[in-house]
C-alpha cells in the first residue's frame, strides 16, 4: 500500500527534503501506512524516517527532524492508501443501482469506509467492517461517525438491505457509543418499509442513546427512471408526507424540551411535498447535517433575505436565469420576485425537468448539463448553482464546465451560496 503524493507545499519540510509530487509514500519508521489518519499518528514524533518511492520504483530513506505538531507539507491523491472499502449490501433503495450505465466509474462506487465517514461525513452501514476496524475506530477515537441506520428493527433492516447480518446494528452502535464515539444517523425512508411504527421505533431507539447519538436525519427515498429489474418502490404521497412532518414535529418538540435541541430532522423534500412551511433556522440547531441536504432550503432562504435586504440597486446588466430543481423553484421564485421589484431587474429561476434521471428526481443537486442547456435555450446569461458540478467541474452526465460554456450562447457564471448569487444578480 502506498500513498501517491499529489502536491508538496512550498517551503515545507517535505519540499526541503526533496520529495516531489508523483512520488509515493511507502512507510513511516518502517511501518506501512493505510491512510492519512494513521499517517497523522505515525509522523507525530520529532524525528521520523520516510520511505519514498520515485517514478522509477526506486526507494530511498529520508530522515526528517521536526517539531511534534509540525506538518510535513504533503498532499495525497486519496485519503486512503489501501483501497476504499465498498458496500456489499443490496439495498432496495440504492441510488447507485439506479444510475444509467456507461458513466464515469466514480459514480458507481458504493463506498462504505469508516475512514471516509470520519473524514468527510460519508454515511456507512457498519455491515462491511471487520473486528479490527472497530478496534481501530475506538483506539484512535474516530468521532463522530455517520451511520446509515434506516431501521433499528432487525428484520426490517435485513429486508431493506438484503443482508441477513444487517440486523446486528444496535449492538454495534452501542459498542461505539460506550467507547465514547458520537454518531450522526440517517434514515432513507421508504413507503411501506420503514415508515409508520417502524420509524417511530427507530426514533425511540436512537433518542434513547442521545447525546452520544447526536442527530437523526430522515430523508425520502429517491427514485429514478432507471429501475428496471429492481425491487418495486414508490414515492410518498402528499398526505403521507404531511403525516410524517406532523409526527416528526411532535418528536422535535419532545427533544427540545428534553435535550434543548430538535435531535431529529427531516429532508426538505418532505416539507415541499406536503406543502408545509419549513421550520425556523433555530430548529435546525446549527445545521449539523446540511451536507446531507437537511435544512438546505432554510439556510439559503435566510441568507438570501439577509443579503437582499441590504441591496437596493442593480447595475441592470443582462438579466440572468438560475436553473433549479422543480421542487426548489416553488419556494425560491417568490424571493427573486421581491428582489426584482426592489431593484427593477428581471432575473428568474427556471425549473428544470430532470430528463436524465426522470422527473421524479426534482432536486437541484442532481441536475445535469444537457437538461440545463435545454431549459435555458435562448437565454443570454446563466448563473449555475455550484452544487451541480463536482470538484472536477463535471456535471453528473459527464459534461464538463468548459463544454457547457462552449455550448451555451451567452455568459456563464457560478454561485456557491445565496450571498454569491445576490452579488452576481446585483452586477
Automatic annotation (TrEMBL):
Domain DUF512, first and last residues per copy: 219-413
SUPFAM superfamilies documented for this protein: PDZ domain-like (SSF50156), Radical SAM enzymes (SSF102114)
UniProt xrefs under InterPro entries: Aldolase_TIM, DUF512, PDZ_6, PDZ_sf, Put_radical_SAM-like_N, rSAM_sf
Domain PDZ: from-to ranges: 4-53
Family matches, as Gene3D superfamilies: 2.30.42.10, Aldolase class I
Domain Putative radical SAM N-terminal per the UniProt entry, residue ranges: 68-215
Highest taxon, organism lineage: Bacteria
Name of this chain's protein: Putative FeS-containing Cyanobacterial-specific oxidoreductase
Amino acid at each position: 500500500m502506498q500513498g501517491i503524493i499529489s502536491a508538496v507545499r512550498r517551503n515545507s519540510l517535505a519540499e526541503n527534503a526533496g520529495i516531489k509530487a508523483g512520488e509515493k509514500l511507502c512507510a513511516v519508521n518502517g511501518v506501512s501506512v493505510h491512510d492519512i489518519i494513521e499517517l497523522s499518528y505515525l509522523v507525530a514524533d520529532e524525528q521520523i524516517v520516510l520511505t519514498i518511492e520515485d517514478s522509477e520504483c526506486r526507494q530511498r530513506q529520508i530522515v526528517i527532524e521536526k517539531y511534534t505538531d509540525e506538518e510535513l507539507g504533503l498532499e495525497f491523491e486519496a485519503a486512503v492508501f489501501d483501497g476504499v472499502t465498498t458496500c456489499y449490501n443490496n439495498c432496495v433503495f440504492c441510488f447507485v443501482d439506479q444510475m444509467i450505465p456507461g458513466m464515469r466509474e466514480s459514480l458507481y462506487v458504493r463506498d462504505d469506509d469508516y475512514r471516509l465517514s470520519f473524514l468527510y461525513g460519508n454515511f456507512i452501514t457498519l455491515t462491511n467492517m471487520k473486528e479490527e476496524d472497530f478496534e481501530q475506530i475506538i483506539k484512535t477515537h474516530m468521532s463522530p461517525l455517520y451511520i446509515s441506520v434506516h431501521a433499528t428493527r432487525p428484520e426490517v433492516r435485513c429486508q431493506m438491505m438484503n443482508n441477513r447480518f444487517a440486523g446486528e446494528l444496535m449492538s454495534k452502535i452501542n459498542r461505539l457509543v460506550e467507547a465514547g464515539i458520537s454518531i450522526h444517523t440517517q434514515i432513507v425512508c421508504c413507503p411501506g418499509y420503514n415508515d409508520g411504527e417502524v420509524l417511530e421505533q427507530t426514533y425511540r431507539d436512537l433518542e434513547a442513546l442521545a447525546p452520544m447519538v447526536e442527530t437523526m436525519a430522515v430523508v425520502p427515498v429517491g427514485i429514478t427512471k432507471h429501475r428496471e429489474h429492481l425491487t418495486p418502490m414508490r414515492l410518498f404521497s402528499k398526505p403521507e408526507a404531511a403525516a410524517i412532518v406532523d409526527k416528526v414535529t411532535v418528536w422535535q418538540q419532545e427533544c427540545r424540551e428534553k435535550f434543548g435541541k430538535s435531535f431529529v430532522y427531516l429532508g426538505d423534500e418532505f416539507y415541499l411535498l406536503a406543502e408545509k412551511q419549513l421550520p425556523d433556522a433555530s430548529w435546525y440547531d446549527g445545521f449539523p447535517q446540511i451536507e446531507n441536504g437537511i435544512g438546505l432550503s432554510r439556510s439559503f432562504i435566510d441568507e438570501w433575505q439577509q443579503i437582499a435586504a441590504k441591496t437596493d440597486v442593480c447595475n441592470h446588466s443582462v438579466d440572468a436565469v438560475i436553473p433549479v430543481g422543480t421542487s426548489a423553484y416553488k419556494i425560491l421564485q417568490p424571493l427573486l420576485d421581491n428582489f426584482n421589484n426592489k431593484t427593477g431587474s428581471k432575473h428568474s429561476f427556471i425549473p428544470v425537468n430532470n430528463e436524465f434521471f426522470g422527473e421524479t428526481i426534482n432536486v437541484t443537486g442532481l441536475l445535469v448539463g444537457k437538461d440545463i442547456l435545454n431549459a435555458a435555450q435562448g437565454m443570454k446569461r446563466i448563473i449555475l448553482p455550484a452544487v451541480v458540478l463536482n470538484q472536477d467541474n463535471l456535471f453528473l452526465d459527464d459534461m464538463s464546465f468548459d463544454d457547457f460554456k462552449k455550448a451555451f450562447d451567452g455568459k456563464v457564471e457560478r454561485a456557491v451560496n445565496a450571498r454569491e448569487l445576490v452579488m452576481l444578480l446585483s452586477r
